[in-house]
Amino acid sequence: MEPSKRSFPARTDTTMQAALMTRGFSQLYLSLGDTNPDGSIVIRLYHKPLVLLIWLGPLLMVLGGALSLSDRRLRIGAPKPAKPVTPRLQPAK
Fold first, then answer.
1. pLDDT at 83 > cutoff 70
2. In the chain, how many domains are there?
3. Which residues contact 46 (CB under 8 A, 6 or more apart)?
């Protein structure tokens, strides 16, 4: 893993690029931080378990949509609603 820190003196800007390692369904992120006054550098290591399963949700939604579109009964047309029943008038007593 090779994270990097780049300085752009013309814009007085510094950017940091994190290193990424994927292992199974988890990922490791390694990023460089600021330099301390004693010359040491802050390193951050993040472990994100099961982060790749985030893609499972949209895939399940696509499969569910395809399954619902494959039901032929629903594509033919909606059934006609029943006509309202009008009450019969009764003679007054």
1. yes
2. 1
3. 28, 29, 30, 31
